[in-house]
Backbone:
């Protein structure tokens, strides 16, 4: 049978392996260091995603510049009707 523990926040029973209480979402005291590590990983992921988004926008901006220059060159080469 699976080990049970009691949530320190809401007092309900839950699987002792859970990091967060499924009833109220509180971090479990005995898994606290693990949940802190998980929080740190998620924090790192969100920072990486933010910097990735910035890089992506910078790349799109430079690609748009290239297209703009190519279009300007093309229009300059096209003889006026
Ligand atoms: Zn709870």
Residues:
């Amino acid at each position: 049978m699976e080990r049970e523990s009691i949530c320190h926040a809401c007092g309900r029973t839950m699987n002792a392996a859970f990091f967060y209480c499924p009833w109220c979402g509180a971090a479990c005291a005995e898994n606290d260091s693990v949940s802190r590590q998980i929080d740190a990983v998620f924090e790192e992921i969100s920072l990486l995603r933010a910097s990735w988004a910035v890089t992506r926008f910078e790349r799109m901006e430079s690609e748009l510049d290239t297209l703009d220059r190519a279009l300007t060159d093309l229009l300059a080469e096209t003889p006026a009707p």
The chain has one domain: 4-77. Residues 32-77 form the longest helix (46 residues). The pocket of zinc ion is lined by residues 7, 9-10, 12, 21, 23-24, 26 (CB under 6 Å). The first strand starts at residue 4 and ends at 6.
